[in-house]
Write a structure and sequence with these properties.
Blueprint: E1 2-5, E2 8-11, H1 16-30, H2 39-46, H3 61-69, H4 88-104, H5 109-122, H6 137-150, H7 159-175, H8 192-195, H9 209-219, H10 222-235, H11 246-260, H12 267-282, H13 286-289, H14 292-303, H15 320-327, H16 334-343, H17 348-351, H18 358-368, E3 375-376, E4 380-381, H19 389-419, H20 432-442, H21 449-472, H22 475-487, H23 499-523, H24 528-549, H25 557-567, H26 570-577, H27 587-590, H28 593-620, H29 626-633, H30 642-664, H31 674-691, H32 702-712, H33 719-722
Antiparallel strand pairs: 1-2, 3-4
Helix pairs in contact: 1-19, 2-3, 2-4, 2-9, 4-5, 4-6, 6-7, 9-10, 11-12, 11-14, 14-16, 19-20, 19-21, 20-21, 21-23, 21-24, 21-26, 22-23, 22-24, 24-25, 24-26, 25-28, 28-30, 28-31, 29-30, 30-31
Keywords: Lyase, Magnesium, Metal-binding
Protein name: Cis-abienol synthase, chloroplastic
Family: Belongs to the terpene synthase family.
Length: about 725
Amino acid sequence: MVLIDGDVVVCVYLLQGFQDSIGRIREKMKGKVEITPSAYDTAWVAMVPSREDSGREPLFPQCLDWIIENQNPDGSWGLQHPGHPLLVKDSLSCTLACLVALRKWNAGDQLVKKGLEFLRSNAWAAADNHQISPIGFDIVFPMMINYANDLDLTLPFHQHLLDSMFSNRHSEIKRNPNLEYVAEGLGESFDWNKSLTQQRSNGSLFNSPATTAAAFIHTQDNNCFQYLHSVLITFKTWVPTVYPIDIYARLSMVDTLQRLGVDRYFQSEIDSILEETYRLWQQKEEEIFTDITCCAMAFRLLRIQGYEVSSDELAAFVDQERFFYTVSPQMGGVATVLELYRASQVDYELKNFHGIPDRVGNRRSLELYDMDNYQVLKTAYRCPAIHNEDLFLFSRQDFNICQSQYQKELEQLERWYKDCRLDSLKFGRSVVNISHFLTCAILADPLLSDARLSYAKSIVLVTCLDDFFDHHGSREESFKILELTKQWNEQPATAYGSEEVEILFTALYNTVNEVAAKAYIEQGRCVKHLLVSLWVEMLTSFMREMDSWSDETPPSVDEYLSFAWLSISCRSCILTSIHFLGINLSEDMVTSPEFTSLCMHVSFVARLLNDLQTFKKEEEERKLNSVILMQAAHKDGGGISEGDAIWEIKKIVEFNRRKLLQMVYQRNGSIVPKECKDIFWRTSKIAYYLYSSGDEFTSPQEMMEDMKSLIYKPLELPAHATS
């Protein structure tokens, strides 16, 4: 629950369960990584014969006992998937592996009968292309059928199905020369001693208990034995489908917390995980660099936090023939391809500007979050630390708390707008709701109320003044507002010349003074002079644009950009709001060259993206626009097409985006706090959101649905969570 007492925002979480959830999630992040048992892999380990007694007994009888004790009610083995009809192939694979293990040691006759009945009832799924197929299914499943036949275990499969499966197996083997990861499906024909060249330092083959067990059966390699022994020391009676998985799982926790928008509660734990991951990255840790998904995720998460990691490390995974079967034990098919894509192109997070604001993305991630989520390697598995009820309920409750806060702030913003008499103006765009929504997307933390409100008020004031300068006011009236701002004094009503000038300047004057007074409390110093100077700069740029309309000779692109970057207002909005982030900022820091460069780069991005979407309209209105000026600049040389001019402007946008990116994630030599840099970065992403395919700020269409989801529509909670 969020209570507002005057201008002080106090977050009071009345439900003890909310705090308890934070504690439990933290423990999961720090404790042993949980993973579900793999019936498939446990069966392969159970098949390993003892080194004594001529192999008449299992070397790991505890695995056989686990199989006996863990048959599902329907006769299958494996992770149960209630209500999921597309994982029957996984159940077939796990069940057949367990049946082969039981028959090999002449155990569990009644269990075998129930298992065979499950295979008979669900045999159709083996040839169903719509089913989710475990990695290597087409290779391993037919080979397990051969193993069953060798053990005189009659399986309930029709001959046409068998013919089809073995034909597919032959084609798969012929098509893929690198099948070491699913070598248990290759049998005696495989060069098992050669496979040991792929052995990891922990003795495993690809961190796969099944593949390692098969290799030990054929080679009696002691390192394989030591690996299997160590896994069972950890899990006692069963093995997972991949081990170790700690680095990948902890990175997945970080990624999940960020996507759900609750990472701010766990920043200390996240920092510890990333620091440790970076240390292991520098040491070329095998668990990272032998797995494509883990490597790609580590690269992405480290890079966006400013760690110096090279994308060259991903080059080892470009051999597509080896991609699916030898490189990636953590591979989840589409998930791995997506993670590799995110890590390439200088990271998905750093490149994906044409998507949705982070907070709207959080909403969609929350709606899609499945606490029973699974991943599929050679079998389906779950990591309960990543997907669980605690995180499901906690993140949804947090979103609703934030949303309640946003709604209260919108009411405050609307009252301010009315108190300033801005609602009485008969011209211009009404952007209170839009400004509020964009600010919530940039500054999501519910504790940052003053930062959001100051940013939103700045947007509203800029828009009102811009509309007045562009369309409604005379040059004299516009100049009057500029002069009043330079003087910064209260004036008698007769001094304004018109009611519109009075309303606009009074709103600006009172709001800046109010914000400056609050900033004084936050920072312990006066920032009014800085804030006023920002508005003088911006209004001066408005006048410069206005005067350039009537110039016989239009400015060059460079001349235009020298003042147009100020008129987009990123500088004033950001430099106003950063005083309310809970960080002490000296005047020298805020006026430093680094801050100025950040302001320029984000402003160039926003200004030019706006120009790209509005140049047609502004050409008709005979206004300045970089696309138009770019075409004019090349007239003497024969001219360039509209498309070429657009391309040239896009190159300038990309240059400034990259420069901004470098500065935002620069650690060494930077004096600007990361919390401030993040505001610049999110502002640039909002610019792409607004101007990727139109002018959503002036004519919002798609934005309206996102606004509803972030501000108005609460996330539903299960009944037991609200009782």
